[in-house]
Hints:
Chain A is mainly alpha-helical. Chain A has helices spanning 2-12, 15-26, 34-48, 57-66, 77-87, 94-106, 110-119, 130-136, 142-149, 154-158, 161-173, 190-205, 214-218, 239-249, 255-267, 271-285. Chain B is of the alpha/beta class. In chain B, strands 1-2-3-4-5-6-7-8 form an 8-stranded parallel sheet, with helices on both faces. In chain B, helix 2 packs parallel to helix 4, helix 4 runs parallel beside helix 5 and helix 8 (196-206) crosses helix 9. The longest helix of chain B is centred in the middle third of the chain and has 17 residues, at 114-130. The chains are: A mainly alpha, B alpha/beta.
Amino acid sequence: MIAFLTEILRARASGGGWKWFQTASRSTVAPVDLNRLLGNYAGASLRLGKRALNLEPEETRRWNSRRPDLPVDHWGLDELGRAILLLKIVHLPPDEYVDTVLECYQQGDSREQQSWLRGLNLLPGRGRFLDAAVDACRTNIVPLLEAIACENPYPAAHFPELNFNQMVLKSLFNAIRMERILGLESRFNPELSRMADDYASEREAAGRDVPPDLWWVVAPRITPERIGRIYPYLQQGNSRHRYWAARALGYARDEPSRLELEGRRTIETDDRVLAAIDASLAKMVQ
Amino acid sequence: MKIFDPHIHMTSRTTDDYSAMAQNGILVIVEPSFWLGQPRTNVGSFIDYFNSLLGWERFRASQFGIRHFCTIGLNPKEANNPRLAEEVLSLLPRYLQKDGVVAVGEIGYDDQTDAEERIFARQLELAMEMDLPVLVHTPHRDKKRGTIRSLDLIRSVGFPEERALIDHNTEETLPLILDTGCWAGHTIYPHTKMDEVRMVKLVKEYGSERILINSAADWGISDPLKVPKTTDLMLESGITLQTIRTIVWDNPAHFFSQSQRLDLAGIDARPSIDQTEFYGGSTVLRGGQTPVVER
Ligand SMILES: [Zn+2]
């Protein structure tokens, strides 16, 4: 793993950047001087730059054969460098390893913390860093929230239900698209459905718009008597509302929901919405 | 109209804000301690923060003729850091005895975790011991459930309801609060929580009993003049002066006077300004500015 990641880094780093990284790597050899390591962890953005990795097709193929669950295209080169540095200190005694990795998070600026939250997915025994990952969701810095909530398999794999649900709600609050939360479907649960449903009611009571993709979170576990509250969104002017309402109703099994979809189908003009209606109707027949 | 803003985070505001607030009739403010947008990593940061609320910030306010009180407590977000939470809790008994501390707050729920509940309950008990009211923050996410849980907890620890101010209410939570003996705060924000127009509707529906409004102005998008702006809109909308006065003055004054540390007669008059004063060697003036002195 380290060898392949280092190859990706080397192919993209400038001459000076690569030289810096080789020197920085020496700070990971025992005995590890924490201050030097923290300095290198911080310096990665300055020395390697923040350009996105955007893997070549061949690299993507090789990466997917190792970690198909973990997208890295959007990682910056600095973030990859930081992840490798943390992988290189796994030789430390377990407690010291955990403390050292946590220091990198706690003393990090926003970019270092983002890198850390992404790189976490590569570390052995990553469940030990759950508290810090959950704590990161308490931030008001949206890019930091995105680093853990979006394009990141960690929450779905490790978060307890309460924390996962809070992260999803916070993402809805911050207008983050639900499709960016990896493994969301695998973590749908009745409490999350109820929370998102309540959030929709709160927005409605305040006369405010509801995030269109919220119904995708609500519908799979909604109680049958509440499914009808989605119907008006199938008739909204904004096609994103109609699209997500149509997709959400695909989780329903009742006759009124089928009739709603059929009815909209006869007047719908947007191709994307039509496709969603058809997919949902097909799902209902099964 | 005399205005009392019962919840405003002045630490994040400028002196321009203070002078605009004074010009718009704000005479008294309560600044609750809360989180700073960024998690603190050690207890010393709390000591310095509490001290600045009690010291420099009160002094800054006084330079504009505004009386500044504060609430001290451990906010729910940082209650989730177990080591830090214990250390901060151990500071509270001493800070709660200081001058100008009129409640324990902001306390409550954020993510609604077990840790938050534990720290919330302990601070309710501490408030009872110290004979102080509490200012309760309600969560942004899963608000209705969080509000119900807050009311349940207040009841289950036996905290006197008339000494609890439950904040950041919406159309959905206000009636829940009014069903109890607690007071209901409303944060008027530019984009979230509650706005002026919605607030006018709520006052028309529910009146003024135990209802408060505040600006909460902090480091986020917010407006320290939201209370006077809402007051203006209430007037234009035909709400009586008496009702408005109850909401923006009498209610906050009565609520916080339960601390016995806010003298109702004393807060009525604007304190005189003397900008020649210094606080720990610092002044709000910069070189060349002429101090305002009223005697
Ligand atoms: Zn606040």
